[in-house]
Amino acid sequence: xxxxxxxxxxxxxxxxxxxxxxxxxxFLLITVLPCIRMGHEPGAAKYRRSxxxxxxxxxxxxxxxxxxxxxxVCAHRxxxxxxxxxxxxxxxxxxxxxxxxxxxxxxxxxxxQTFGENRFYYASGSSSPxxxxxxxx
Length: 137
Known about the structure:
It contains three helices and no strands. It is mainly alpha-helical and 137 residues long. 19% of the residues are buried.
């Protein structure tokens, strides 16, 4: 087997790092959904998790962008390959969408004070005005 050049190994490492960053980011963002409550946590905790999840998605996208741009540039310089296939284009599109989605999550999640307000939760035996049955929702 021929030894792989440094840029191929670096691009592989970047794509593995992107894959490893994606799993905790998705788990963090799933726990921020309005239908999921974890005990009696304040809205600021969900806000911090959404910000961290968005930042991880942006880091994932940057790893993907660097790997999918660096590989074809170096491969073309080394072997003058002109066609790279659809998986490289898929990597570009996926990285761009992750970058856009991470930026939207970070910029549009609101502020920590209002995160999670104006929600009604069902609680049995309660007659508070925030009760879903008494609010006629």
